[in-house]
Specification:
The protein has 176 residues and is of the alpha+beta class. The protein has one domain: Lipocalin (Beta Barrel), CATH 2.40.128. It has a six-stranded antiparallel beta sheet with strand order 5-6-7-8-9-10. A four-stranded antiparallel beta sheet has the order 1-2-3-4, with no helix packed on it. Strand 7 and strand 8 form a beta hairpin. The longest helix is centred in the N-terminal third of the chain and has 9 residues. One of its GO terms (molecular function) is lipid binding.
């Protein structure tokens, strides 16, 4: 969890589907988390990998895509690569070991794998061949934010859920 959220008090305004959400994160129920807090286990002692147990290691296959071609075009990706990239259904998997995260994207067109530590910049070659400096700025709950700096900067927000992952890319808002 980002330190900006630690040590603060929050009032629950809506609890619809909260038990299901907690189960997706591998908690048996919302009561289990409440019990941990009441037992004196602070948020800081819960590692991100414990919170994300229900998300890490899952494989997410692309089901739909909206404006992805426009997004790639805005980044200067050539027509042939755009057509190939738009026609495949990649599988995405996020794993973590000792604070090192691995994001694998596998498809029939091209497979990529990036390894990173949160907040640290790293070199990346994107699936479309661009060379960028990337940093994963935040990992809060189930959202992974990635900033790619290159000829044209872009931000990718990946939201991991129990059965699907949603990716939103800007400067052109594209959903996958």
């Amino acid at each position: 969890m980002s330190s900006e959220f630690l040590g603060k008090r929050y009032k629950l305004s809506n609890s619809e589907n909260f038990d299901e959400f907690m189960k997706a994160l591998a908690w048996k129920s919302a009561a289990a988390l409440v019990s941990l807090v009441l037992a004196g286990v602070s948020e800081t002692s819960l590692t991100m990998s414990q919170v994300m147990t229900g998300i890490l290691g899952k494989r997410y296959k692309l089901q739909s895509s909206d404006k992805f071609d426009e997004y790639m075009k805005a980044l200067g990706v050539g027509m042939v690569t755009r057509k190939m990239g738009s026609s495949v259904s990649p599988v995405v998997e996020l794993t973590e070991k000792d604070g090192m995260y691995t994001l694998k994207t596998t498809s029939t067109f091209k497979s990529t794998e990036i390894k990173f530590k949160l907040g640290e910049e790293f070199d990346e070659e994107t699936a479309d061949g661009r060379k960028v400096k990337s940093s994963v700025c935040t990992l809060e709950g189930n959202k992974l934010m990635q900033l790619q700096k290159g000829e044209k900067d872009t931000t990718i927000e990946r939201e991991f859920g129990p059965t699907e992952m949603k990716a939103v890319s800007v400067p052109i808002v594209a959903f996958r």
